Amino acid sequence: MATYRTASVAETERLGEAFGLRLCPGDVVAFTGDLGAGKTAFVRGVARGAGFDGEVLSPTFALVHEYHGVLDLYHFDMYRIASPEDLYTTGYYDYLDTKAVLLIEWSENIAEEIPTDAIRVHLDRVSENERNITIEGRDALENFGS
Amino acid sequence: MNATSPLKEGTRLKILGVDTSAKTASAAIYESGKLLGEIYADVGLTHSETALPMVKALLDLTRVSLRELDLLAVSTGPGSFTGLRIGIAAVQGISVGSGIPCASVSTLEALAWNLQDFDGVVCPVMDARREQVYTALFRGDGEVLQRIGEDRAVSLEQLGRELGNLREAIIFVGDGAEMCYNKLVHSLDRATLAIQSRRMQRASSVCRVGESAFMRQTGIVGPQDLTPSYLRLPQAERERNERLARQENSW
Q1: CB contact under 8 A, A91 and B240
Q2: Which of A83, A90, A93 is closest, CB to CB, to B80?
Q3: Four-point Cα dihedral B77, B78, B81, B83, nearest 10
Q4: Distance from CA of A145 to the nearest CA of B (A)
Q5: Which element (helix H / strand E) includes B100?
Q6: Does A25 touch chain B (CB under 8 A)?
Q7: Rounded-to-10 torsion of CA B154, B183, B205, B18
Q8: Does A89 contact chain B (CB < 8 Å)?
Q9: What's the burial of B248, exposed, middle or buried (CB within 10 Å: 0-12/13-18/19+)?
Q10: CATH: 3.40.50.300, 3.40.50.2000, 3.30.70.100, 3.90.550.10. Which one for A2-138?
């Protein structure tokens, strides 16, 4: 486990980018943290690090966004997911069986359905601009200079 | 063929079958008891890109034109959320354009028909995760299968108990068969596992079930009535009941 402190949205994105560079096909990343903690900013960096140049927005309404760069990324927002049936209708289980990388915001809502070997990223608001970001998973994803 | 048969005597029934219900994808063309051609792929979930090209290649290969087809059979569930919708949408598109009727085929029934010649109980199983499976039961006499249980979602534990009461040979088939066999074999000494080449969903079996539905004129629908069938998981059912109970209490 490693904890990083970022002092701005831009720094959170840069940390995400360094993290994204180290992802492998099939990785599942489970995000936790309150509204405004910076999950989407981190994911924006991850997508850039994984070779995607386009726009990254919170998939609040679509539930899942796809980004295809060096890796195939699926960005989920589980905020409104309340049951296994809801989850089934997002196609989550189908994506889980592929070589794609899954980035899951509000993973606490589907805690029991997150694979046990998933990488965990928790974001905590420290002040208006500062965030504590805790990463738990493979060593290469925890420890990198940022 | 009897007088009420939808086909004139001597007419051959041509069927296109499509299955994209889970990890594999396949298409087949079948003509009155004979498989003319089948394409099968197990290369991950690329069904949205492969299903229609597969159908087109198969029509070219078998030199069958769309106009000659009498029926479009497609597996409508249970199965993967996106997979089912890809197969159904492809068949709906062909049906709308051509006017050919559709057969809505249970994925489990088609799986069972992979083992049409089995003498005993055929148990198709698809993994529904968290120790739950989609399953149904069929009894075979070595030539044809009879359905003896509806499509449903149950816990592995319950399925094991039910199969334990049977006195016949049991065979597991489907993408959940191996998992089911490994977990239940210690308590079911009569259970076996279908060999790999007959274990997964096959469009040829979807054709066979579609043919029998066509003969009975049951489950034959227009494209607008082709919908994925969703079996409620026991665990989801429990959670739903709890939610409803909470709502009632709050009134």
Answers
A1: no
A2: A93
A3: -50
A4: 36
A5: none
A6: no
A7: 70
A8: yes
A9: exposed
A10: 3.40.50.300
Q: What is the three-state SS of chain A?
A: CEEEEECCHHHHHHHHHHHHHCCCCCCEEEEECCCCCCHHHHHHHHHHHCCCCCCCCCCCCCCEEEEECCCEEEEEECCCCCCHHHHHCCCHHHHHCCCCEEEEECHHHHHHHCCCCCEEEEEEECCCCCEEEEEECCHHHHCCCC
Question: Could you give the CA distance from residue B105 to residue B124 in angstroms, rounded to a whole number?
Answer: 14
Q: Does B229 touch chain A (CB under 8 A)?
A: no
Give the sign of the dihedral formed by CA A104, CA A109, CA A113, CA A119: positive
Q: Which residue has the higher pLDDT, B92 or B238?
A: B92
The pTM assigned to this predicted structure is: 0.85
Is beta strand B102-105 parallel, antiparallel or unpaired with respect to B71-75? Answer: parallel
| Residue % of chain A over a pLDDT of 90 | 75
Q: Please give the average per-residue pLDDT across B88-106, as a whole number.
A: 97
Let me know: does A121 contact A27? Beta carbons within 8 Å. Answer: no
Q: What is the pLDDT of residues A80-132, one digit of tens each?
A: 998 888 898 888 988 887 889 999 999 999 998 999 999 999 999 999 999 99
- CA A68, A74, A77, A80 dihedral sign is positive
pLDDT in tens, A127-140: 999 999 999 998 88
